[in-house]
Every structure is written in C-alpha cells, then in structure tokens.
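Tokens as discussed.
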C-alpha cells in the first residue's frame, strides 16, 4: 500500500501591504471632503455675519435666527420691486452694500443737474433707505475723458458736484444729512478699462455705499 507523503513545502503568506496604501488613500479623501465642508461652512457663516451686521434690530436679534429676511435681502427685494431696481446694480463687499446708479439715468452729459427721471429714482431709493439707521457715502465717479469747457474744469469737480447734488436731493426726500457724506473720485476708481465708449459709460456712475451698522 502506497503511503502518502506529507508536503513539507513552506506556506506562502498572503501579501497585505496594499491595505496600507488603500488606507492612506481613504484617509486623504476623508481629509479632502472635511476640508471642503469646513470651507463651505466658514463662507456661509461669514455671509451670515455680514448680513447680520446690516440688520436694523439689535445685535443677536432673534429675527436673524427665525427665518426672517436679513436687511441685505430686504433691501435688494424692495429695490427690485420698485422702479429703482431697473436702473441700479447692487453689490456687497467688505465695505458694505453698494448701490450703483448709471450717470445716464441721473444726469445729462457733463452736468451735475439731476434729471427728472433721476429725481424719481432717487425719491424711490430714499423711501427705501429712510427707515434704516446705517450711514452712507455718496460717491461720484467719471470716465477718463478730460473736460472741455462747461462749468467744471476737471472730472474732480464734476464727480464731487454730482455726489453733492444726490445728497442734497436725498435730504429733501427725508434722509437725514448726518447719515450722509460725499466723495468725488473722478476717474481714479474705474469699474472697467476706459477703452471704448460703452465701457466708459459703465465708469460714469454714482455709487451709494451703505455701511454696516456702527461704522
């Protein structure tokens, strides 16, 4: 009878080094998604903080946490529903809320006299901002074209005169004068390059900066 011989060959252990590479990959992916989540949460909190700073209520007002619209949302909504929204552009940055009025809506070329249509837009705008306590800076901006003749020797005088005219009319419409200040920037702060007539038109504007509460 044949006797089966026992196999004395050494067992080959299964290589498991791949698990370390796989674990590193999973860990890196987890860190990546945690980082994305943290960044998105930080941006959301920052946006909420900026919005809350414009609130008409006291700090930490419960309305901010009860689904009530923020001041920024209310302002934009009110403007879009009124005639103001048709002729303005609203932007938000670290300085506050900026409402831009095109000079074609407000003034004749080279003039600081507010047009009839511009006066109506300012009246509607003044009704919206009348009830809020925030301070405002009214900024006049021009393109880079030099003044030739007329009442203003340079864009400095024109931009300042236009800002002053807007502030004076807003005061007539009920906005308190101690909430406003004016600035004339001439062509020193263009929105776009002054390369064509259509681009220069974008730079000729009145910006009303609504500051955060307490600033």
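Sequence:
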């Amino acid at each position: 009878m044949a006797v089966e011989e026992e196999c004395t060959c050494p067992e080959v252990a299964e290589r498991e080094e791949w698990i370390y590479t796989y674990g590193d990959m999973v860990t890196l992916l987890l860190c990546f998604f945690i980082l994305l989540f943290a960044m998105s949460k930080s941006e959301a909190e920052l946006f909420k903080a900026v919005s809350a700073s414009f609130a008409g209520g006291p700090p930490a007002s419960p309305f901010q946490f009860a689904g009530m619209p923020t001041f920024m949302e209310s302002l934009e909504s009110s403007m879009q529903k009124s005639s103001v929204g048709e002729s303005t552009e609203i932007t938000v940055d670290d300085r506050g809320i900026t409402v831009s009025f095109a000079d074609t809506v407000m003034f004749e070329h080279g003039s600081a006299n507010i047009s009839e249509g511009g006066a109506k837009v300012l009246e509607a705008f003044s009704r919206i901002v009348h009830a809020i306590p925030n301070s405002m800076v009214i900024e006049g901006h021009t393109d880079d074209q030099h003044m030739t003749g007329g009442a203003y020797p340079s864009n400095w005088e024109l931009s300042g005169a236009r800002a002053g005219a807007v502030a004076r009319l807003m005061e007539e419409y009920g906005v308190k004068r101690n909430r406003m200040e004016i600035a004339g920037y001439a062509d020193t702060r263009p929105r776009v390059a002054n390369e064509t007539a259509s681009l220069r038109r974008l730079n000729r504007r009145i910006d009303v900066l609504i500051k955060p509460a307490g600033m």
